[in-house]
Design goal:
Helix 9 packs across helix 12. Helix content is 34%, strand content 22%. By secondary structure, it is an alpha+beta fold. The radius of gyration is 25 Å and the shape is globular. The protein is built from 16 helices and 20 strands. Strand 13 and strand 14 form a beta hairpin.
Length: 507
């Protein structure tokens, strides 16, 4: 080969490397560029790492996994029109004179409501753009006060006090700090779930910014397929900037937490009481409760959370729990807003690292509940010396679906149980010890329940870990329908590829 040809090949190779480097540089700089463009188009809405607004937003996530992520900038819109402008900017919509970008080349972004999800990347992103919706937090009641229009970035515990003067409530989170958007599009568990279904079953309309930047209003009569898909389909279809939800008359309700000694006799009594409580013949639509098993500082604990949405103190339905000798309780009559505040005092304000796994099953014999508890107790003990270790095993009724959702559940079933195992701890060095062990506990539980033929594949999105196949658990028919709706309203797959966080329709 001649020296001339060799030099040409070297030059071509060099130019190829330069081109790749330039492409990588463009890709790396893309979030910065999109931030700068958004700052120009939407002044005052973009904050950068050195800004106090950026730092406050990043530090306010519930989970340390989310707080560890550092977006290139944070976009804080105040209305749906600004969200629409941003989406058009991201996709290169012709409005701004740019060629349309495919989602593979569009800047990556995350959508944040309350920021309460535990796993990394659910509502934040490293190096991309985080859309923090919390300035879209309005509340308006219809003239007859039967519908509340709530901004997509609102927090439920900020909404409840505004409804107390009207003796009304809405079906939102049961602890403070939970955002409207992720909660409502994932299903939603509330005190009224046994009477009115999942929270998403009671949403009349959604104002949605689609991948095209178009703003649509989805109801049972308009964009009906999108309306139904948002009831469990999460962040896969667009950005919801307003939820029109049903209000419910709610004056005083009764409830709180009751604490017991952690002994075999108490655990056996809890298992018998819960199995009996979940028997359909004993169903009480006003009652929502849970067995809360805890492990902290190498010490086990057991408590009940008891809620009754009618103004009845010490209702008969809970007699098998309240008759167990206890250490004390916070049970009282109060309004739903105060109940959320009081219940939230049982949770840490933030957590460093964590894992949470969920599973569902049909009610079963007390002996099976005892085995589940024993298995959890045995397998969590070796983690007692992990710094900051807290583990909770929660057993509670699953909401009674009314069928107006995309969760794939039978309507009207009153004997379905949902269990959640959550572990929180301090250090990344303990990930390898904690996370596989928690997964092993749930695997053993599910094997036992399958053997008993009571296991249900459904995984509730808002309690699930990213490793769990939530969308697949809805069933193949629902999954196919959700994918078809995604292709219809987001044909280029913007919310599948450019929004990598959360539970995607295609894995």
């Amino acid at each position: 080969m001649s020296r001339f040809c060799l030099n040409i090949l070297r030059l071509v190779a060099f130019l190829h490397v330069v081109a790749i480097a330039a492409g990588q540089q463009r890709q790396e700089q893309q979030p910065t560029n999109i931030c700068q463009q958004a700052a120009s188009r939407l002044p005052g809405r973009i904050s950068y790492p050195a800004d106090p607004v950026y730092q406050s937003s990043r530090e306010s996530y519930y989970s340390g996994f989310e707080r560890a992520l550092a977006p290139g900038c944070i976009f804080r819109p105040t209305n749906s029109a600004e969200v629409s402008q941003f989406i058009k900017l991201v996709t290169g919509n012709g409005q701004y004179g740019n060629a349309s970008r495919s989602p593979n080349r569009s800047p990556k972004f995350a959508v944040r409501g309350g920021g309460h999800t535990l796993f990394s990347g659910a509502a934040n992103i490293d190096g991309g753009v985080t859309i923090d919706l919390r300035e879209i937090k309005s509340l308006a009641l219809s003239q007859d006060r039967k519908v509340a229009s709530i901004g997509g970035g609102a927090v439920w515990s900020d909404i409840y006090p505004q409804l107390v003067p009207y003796n009304l409530t809405v079906m939102g989170g049961r602890v403070p700090g939970v955002g409207v958007g992720g909660f409502a599009t994932g299903g939603g568990v509330h005190f009224l779930n046994q009477r009115h279904g999942w929270s998403c079953d009671n949403i009349y309309g959604y104002e949605v910014v689609l991948a095209s930047g178009e703003i649509v209003y989805a109801t049972a009569n308009s964009y009906q397929d999108l309306w139904l898909s948002l009831k469990g389909g999460s962040n896969n279809f667009g950005i919801v900037t307003r939820f029109d939800v049903a209000t419910f008359p709610q004056g005083l309700m009764w409830g709180g937490v009751i604490l017991f000694n952690y002994t075999k006799s108490v655990l056996d009594a809890q298992a018998r009481a819960f199995s009996n409580f979940m028997n359909p013949k004993n169903f009480d639509s006003a009652a929502d409760m849970g067995i809360i098993l805890g492990f902290r500082n190498n010490t086990f604990s057991v408590a009940n959370s008891l809620f009754y949405v009618d103004p009845v103190a010490n209702p008969k339905t809970y007699q098998s729990f309240t008759s167990i000798p206890s250490l004390g309780n916070t049970l009282a009559l109060t309004n739903a807003s105060n109940m959320v505040v009081q219940f939230g005092k049982n949770l840490p304000p933030t957590i460093p690292r964590s894992i949470q796994l969920v599973y569902s099953f049909k009610n079963t014999d007390a002996a099976i509940y005892t085995k589940l508890i024993q298995q959890w107790e045995t397998d969590i003990k070796p983690l007692g010396n992990v710094p900051g270790m807290i583990c909770q095993f929660l057993i509670q009724p699953q909401p009674v679906s009314n069928g107006t959702n995309s969760l794939g559940l039978k309507a009207g079933e009153t004997d379905v149980v949902m269990a959640i195992v959550t572990a929180a701890y301090n250090n990344a060095a303990d990930d390898a010890a904690v996370q596989p062990r928690v997964q092993a506990i749930v695997d053993k539980h599910e094997r036992l329940l399958r053997k008993q033929r009571v296991y249900i594949p459904f995984k509730y999105l808002n309690y699930a870990d990213i490793t769990q196949d939530v969308i697949g658990s809805y069933g193949p028919h629902i999954q196919r329908r959700l994918r078809a709706v995604s292709k219809k309203y987001d044909p280029q797959g913007l919310f599948q590829r450019s929004v990598p966080g959360g539970f995607k329709l295609w894995k």
